[in-house]
Amino acid sequence: MADRYYSAQPIAGDRITLVGPEAHHLAQVARARPGDEVLVFDGLGSEFAARVERVGRGEVELAVVARREVDRELPLELSVAAALPKGDRQRWLVEKAVELGVTRLVPLVTTRGVAQPVEKAIDRLRRTVIEASKQCGRTRLLEIAEPQRWDELCVRQAGRRCHRAVAHPAGGEPARSLFELLAPPRRVDSLVLAVGPEGGFTDEELAQATAAGWSLLSLGPRVLRVETAVSCLAALVAAASE
Ligand code: SAM
Prior knowledge:
By secondary structure, this protein is α/β, with parallel strands linked by helices. Helices cover 31% and strands 28% of the residues. Strands 6, 7, 8, 9, 10, 11, 12 and 13 form an eight-stranded parallel beta sheet that branches. It has a five-stranded mixed beta sheet with strand order 1-3-4-5-2. The protein binds S-adenosylmethionine (SAM).
């Protein structure tokens, strides 16, 4: 796959202007010259073959050579609601979630959460989404939703074809149940999977979830870190919905 660049502006005509970090990457890191061809996507599902026309200070102009509709998404909507871990493990979690096709990440505010999801950190994670999408070939961006409190999110009404499950180390349905759920004819169009903080969900939070119709899902007898649990769940969904 050729080098890929992200345009924050939707691409409608036959010209693309890259600015900011993407222009820097193309001009300074990749040392692009007029005539070079690259791929550009705008996060809306298309991929554009484009030719560099002008490399300016802080911006690069390109001409669209071809437009392709590209679908590298999962066949269903996968939302992961997770209490984010600290530091670099947040970035790792987001990178793997993008690679594995997660549609939406909802940073959770929970009783035992250690890293409160602040706007500055969320903005950095949005940049990680772009970098990971460039690398893995996604043409739609994983959405990082506004942080939500678990006690509010878990009682929200879900659609008839939406399945919601909380990953829980102390038991629940085995993860292979996802294969039964997603086998054709698939009974759901969307999944919401929740992962708790390093200290786990409290008994009260788990009770709220089960009372609101969430099922519990086990990933085996070992306690996984938050980011490992998120990656396992996403990988299982990706494999089960192939
Ligand atoms: N002592 C905590 C507990 O008992 O919940 C451990 C929390 S674990 C580090 C963080 C989160 O990852 C958990 O809240 C759960 O959502 C998920 N998780 C970790 N291991 C899991 C497993 N074996 N099965 C299902 N979920 C798991």
